[in-house]
TrEMBL record:
Location of the protein in the cell: Golgi apparatus membrane
A GO term from the CC aspect: Golgi membrane
SUPFAM superfamilies, A to Z: Multidrug resistance efflux transporter EmrE (SSF103481)
GO molecular function: pyrimidine nucleotide-sugar transmembrane transporter activity
Source taxon at top rank: Eukaryota
Protein name (database record): Solute carrier family 35 member A3b
Gene name tied to this protein: LOC110508983
Organism name: Oncorhynchus mykiss
Keywords for the protein's UniProt record, in alphabetical order: Golgi apparatus, Membrane, Sugar transport, Transmembrane, Transmembrane helix, Transport
UniProt keyword Repeat, yes or no: no
Keyword Transmembrane helix recorded: yes
Sequence similarity: Belongs to the nucleotide-sugar transporter family. SLC35A subfamily.
Membrane topology: Multi-pass membrane protein
Length: 370
């Protein structure tokens, strides 16, 4: 018999995107479930912060030889996620190679149309992952973190328009407060705190901002589109991840050879790789497993709010360690608003609690991204 624990969780195709709640479960949330919800949100904050900071540091670190190719790092992260999901299916079915082979054949090879449905979100996620490397090559970690929180709003709007999700008054208000806080964090420092410091970020800030904005819209659309697909299927979450990963490998390899083909021919795919680069790849690949816990106890918008809390931690480390950001009083005001919005959204969800949806993927064969 398959093990029930792992098959009930979803994982994200990338570290920064997630799948969603699908079937009705228990109408009440126990105290232990509530504790697990906030624990998982806290872990997500730490994972997001560490990924952003290590990725930023790896893209600005001056060293001998060429810098590693972001496109190749995206491909390796997809490959690692596929391997992890294969191991989880193997574990779910008592380490049986025969069952593993049967599951992969029945759920992937024998269901080509179901697999093809994931080509769209997988392509968008691959584009998004590459854009985030572009953004962090041109923006400091704090600015990136703040700007990327716009995905909360895009996810909410796409959820309302595509899924018919209904938000309460306080939830809409919390979204408005959150956006106000983000705007204040990005407020030009010279207007209130004197002349702005000399920018320390390498590259074009405009390129970085545009990359983040495109990533925000793609993240919101792909996440909601993927949720819509999940609500009409009973496939294993791990199978879904493998399907996404396979398309991600194809799109990612296309990106490697189209945009970095010449550099690959000159210095190879693994040029510039070091322990820090492999850490970034591992964090990106394992991010979906962290998101799995969040998705089980919270919706995608609440996950986005939790991620916004990492702005503060990212700013502190960016200021003291990376030394590429100088926070102002306006930033701290914006951070307070972001925190207030987070608690307001949580209060609304608790006050207007409905029977909670949760992933109830059955072993008969069941995913989220990154």
């Amino acid at each position: 018999m398959p093990k029930p624990g792992l098959s009930r969780l979803a994982t994200s195709p990338d570290s920064m995107e997630a799948s969603h709640l699908v079937s009705m479960s228990s109408p009440l949330v126990s105290p232990s479930q509530s504790r697990l919800k906030y624990m998982s949100l806290g872990v997500l904050v730490l994972q997001t912060t560490s990924l952003v900071l290590t990725m930023r540091y790896s893209r600005t670190l001056q060293g001998e030889g060429p810098r590693y190719l972001a496109s190749s790092a995206v491909v390796l992260a997809e490959l690692l996620k596929i391997l992890i999901c294969l191991l989880l299916i193997f574990y779910d079915h008592n380490f049986s190679f025969l069952v593993l082979n049967r599951v992969l054949k029945e759920e992937i090879l024998n269901k080509p149309m179901e697999t093809l449905k994931l080509a769209i979100p997988s392509g968008i996620y691959t584009l998004q992952n590459n854009l985030l490397y572009v953004a962090l090559s041109n923006l400091d970690a704090a600015t990136y973190q703040v700007t990327y929180q716009l995905k909360i709003l895009t996810t909410a709007l796409f959820s309302v328009s595509m899924l018919g999700k209904r938000l309460g008054l306080y939830q809409w208000l919390s979204l408005l407060i959150l956006m106000t806080g983000i705007a204040l964090v990005q407020w030009p420092s010279e207007s209130l705190d004197g002349p702005a410091p000399t920018p320390l970020s390498a590259g074009s800030q405009l390129v970085g901002v545009i990359a983040v904005l495109i990533a925000c819209f793609s993240s919101g659309f792909a996440g909601v589109y993927f949720e819509k697909i999940l609500k009409g299927t009973k496939q294993s979450v791990w199978v879904r991840n493998i399907q996404l990963g396979l398309f991600g490998l194809v799109f990612g390899l296309m990106g490697v050879f189209v945009y970095d083909g010449e550099r690959v021919r000159e210095s190879g795919v693994f040029q510039g790789y070091n322990p820090l680069t492999w850490t970034v790849v591992a964090l990106q690949a394992l991010g979906g497993l962290v998101i799995a816990a969040v998705i089980k106890y919270a919706d995608n918008i609440l996950k986005g709010f939790a991620t916004s809390l990492s702005i503060i931690l990212s700013t502190l480390i960016s200021y003291f360690w990376l030394v590429d950001f100088d926070p102002t009083s306006v930033f701290f005001l914006g951070a307070v608003l972001v925190l207030a919005a987070t608690f307001l959204y949580g209060y609304e969800a608790e006050a207007c609690h409905q029977p909670q949806q949760s992933l109830d993927w059955r072993p008969t064969t069941s995913h989220n991204r990154v």
